[in-house]
Every structure is written in structure tokens, then in C-alpha cells.
């Protein structure tokens, strides 16, 4: 009887330890106005955090500690972004998936205009020295697609390596692409297009690319599957890596991302449903994964640190 009890106890301890090892951390604490989609994070020279997200005019939130967030307005208030109406089919400036970058005292913001299921899409660029609502200058069209293209010009992400600028983009169709960007204009420097990742499964559901360099590798994060359906969402975050920003990218099993590869970084767990629409940012405490997810209360901001010590990003 003693040996059986001991065996049962050891099995229980082993099971508990296994659960602890495999458990996925919940998002870090965030408070205030945190109902976002497709968030992107920047920090200005004063240390203030800026969070931009999908919505009419592109929503702006600020924080001093990366925890408490205040909605302060929109990049383009009151439907001011009229140049996007031909792509959105609306007049309220309903704009998607911004990507921000802070340099030389200015905030740069790439953003997309489209409608669900359409390739009539465009990516635009804006800048502001303060970041405040209504202070943003429209720098115009960056790139666009029509149904004659085999990819979709939304979900832009700027990556800078050794002074060279690149923009990844794409959603569904033939997946994620990379274009070279002129650092002076923020616009394409050539018409060349490099394919980085593609899926044929799940209707080709891959989007929201974010390229992040850590050590000797570039990591290509993407969102897979179904977004924007509340607690029915199946969004999840995947990754591959390459020694070159241009690829080829492979997942942890060595499968090329252009052949449907992608190692899971974060999926639904506990009460956290459909994480995706991610951005990856370097803060004082290291690499940060910023994303949206759903709970029974609606959409919410998620922030976790990433640990790359194994050579692959792990949510902590």
C-alpha cells in the first residue's frame, strides 16, 4: 500500500511539473482602454508609449508605463483621410493594421486601406513630430494592389537593417512579400518583390507579418487562420527564421515558410482566444510581443516578453 501511494504521489508530481512546463503565460497586466485590433507599439524620446490600432482614423492610445492605457483620439479624426475612401468604400477613414516607427524625433506610421476579402488595397505613410491626434502629415501612397495582382497590399511592417529599409506586407492569396524602401522617402526604391511566406491550407490564411532581428537571425512572425470573430476566432501567431531579411525562412522543423511552414508561438489558451495581429518591439526589458486577443468581454490588448535564448522565440 505504501509503495502504491508513493507511486501515485510521484505520478502526480510529474504531471504537475509537466503542466507547469507546458503552461502558456497569460498576457502581462494592462489596464484602461485596451479594446484594440492589430496593435503596434512605439516609444518616443520622452519615454511615452504610443499604441496605434485598426479603427476609424487609426486609434491612438498612450501610456507612461506600458500598463495603463488611455485612448487619446485618432491619427486622422472625423474622416479626414479622404484619400483612402476609394479603397475602403467608406467615408469614415476605417483604416487597418498600422505599423509605427520612431526616429529622429518623429513618428512614422504605415497603414492600410481596404475592405474584407478585397485586393483593391493600398498602404499609405504618415508622420508626426508629436504623435497627437490631428498633427499627422499625409505622405501619400506607398504601394497598392488590384484583383490583377496575386497578393494583397495590407499589413505593412517596416524593418531596418544596417541602414537599409524594407517593408513586409501581404494577406492571404500568395502570402507575405518584401519590398525595398528608400529611407529618404519611405516609399519603394524598386519594383522588385520577394516572396517570404505562403500557405495553401486554410484558404491561404496568413497575414500580419512582422520581421524582428535577434542575434544572427531575422524572425518572421505571421498570424494564421481566422481573425476578428470574437471568441470564435482561431487566429494564432507563427514564426520562422532566416540569416537574411530576404529569406529563405524556415520553421523549427526546417519547413520553408514558402511551403506552409511556421512554428507556433502563441495560440488560444485558457481564456485567451485568437491571439494575432502582432507587432514585435524592443523595449528596455527586451523583446516585446504586442497583439490582440479575445475574451468573453471582447477584444483586448496583449503584451508579453519574448525569450530568444533557445534560438526561437518563447512567450514569457
Topology:
Layout: H1 2-22, E1 31-32, E2 40-43, E3 49-53, E4 55-56, E5 59-63, E6 68-74, H2 85-88, E7 94-103, E8 106-113, E9 121-128, E10 137-145, E11 157-161, E12 164-169, E13 176-181, E14 194-197, E15 206-214, E16 217-224, E17 236-242, E18 263-266, E19 273-283, E20 286-295, E21 298-307, E22 314-315
Parallel strand pairs: 1-6
Antiparallel strand pairs: 2-3, 3-5, 4-7, 5-6, 7-8, 8-9, 9-10, 11-12, 12-13, 13-14, 15-16, 16-17, 17-18, 19-20, 20-21, 21-22
Q: Could you characterize the architecture of this molecule?
A:
Residues 1-23 form the signal peptide. It catalyses: Endohydrolysis of (1->5)-alpha-arabinofuranosidic linkages in (1->5)-arabinans. Its EC number is 3.2.1.99. It comes from Ephemerocybe angulata. Pathway: Glycan metabolism; L-arabinan degradation. The protein has 316 residues and is mostly beta strands. Helix content is 8%, strand content 45%. The protein is built from 2 helices and 22 strands. It has helices at 2-22, 85-88, and strands at residues 31-32, 40-43, 49-53, 55-56, 59-63, 68-74, 94-103, 106-113, 121-128, 137-145, 157-161, 164-169, 176-181, 194-197, 206-214, 217-224, 236-242, 263-266, 273-283, 286-295, 298-307, 314-315. A 5-stranded mixed β-sheet has the order 1-6-5-3-2, with no helix packed on it. Strands 4-7-8-9-10 form a 5-stranded antiparallel β-sheet. A hairpin with a 2-residue loop joins strand 19 and strand 20 (286-295). It is globular, with a radius of gyration of 20 Å. The termini are far apart. Mean pLDDT is 93; it is low at 6-21.
